[in-house]
Amino acid sequence: MKLSSEPVSSLDDEPLIEVLATDRKTKERSARASEARRTSQRRQNVDPTTCDREYTAAELEFMQAIQAYKNSSGRMFPTWSEVLEVLKGLGYQKLG
Questions:
Q1: Domain residue spans in the chain?
Q2: How far apart are CA 26 and CA 18, in angstroms?
Q3: Could you tell me the pLDDT band of residue 53, with boundaries at 50, 70 and 90?
Q4: CA geometry: angle at 55 spanning 50 and 56, to 5°?
Q5: HSE (CB half, 13 Å, CA atoms) of 18?
Q6: Contact at 8 Å (CB) between 69 and 78?
Q7: CA distance 68 to 74
Q8: Which DSSP state fits 11?
């Protein structure tokens, strides 16, 4: 086995210069995307479902009923019809 002092390419014998150029392009693209996210107004709204807050009794009852339905049915993502079924099971009904 011969050892070489030449640089070794990391991607299937691709020339080292191409690898460095691709890496530079990736870093530039990442920097542009990061800057766009930082200046975007879209990401400044806080999603209430992802922050810690106090839930009302009705909200807790609904979340627990949905979780119980998911556990009993084996479905991670219930359809809207199934959500409506859970709501009706809690006693909610349309007025009017």
A1: 10-44, 53-89
A2: 12
A3: confident
A4: 150
A5: 8
A6: yes
A7: 10
A8: S
Share of the chain above pLDDT 70, in %: 66
Confidence of residue 71 (pLDDT cuts 50, 70, 90): very high
Closest CA to 87 of 67, 60, 65: 65
Reported residue count of the chain is 96
Q: What is the pLDDT of residues 10-26, one digit of tens each?
A: 555 556 666 666 777 78
d(CA 24, CA 34): 15
Contact call for residues 33 and 23 (beta carbons, < 8 A) = no
The answer to whether 63 and 92 have CB atoms below 8 angstroms apart is no
Number of neighbours of residue 14 by Cβ within 10 angstroms = 11
Sort 74 into a burial class: Cβ within 10 Å, 0-12 / 13-18 / 19+: exposed
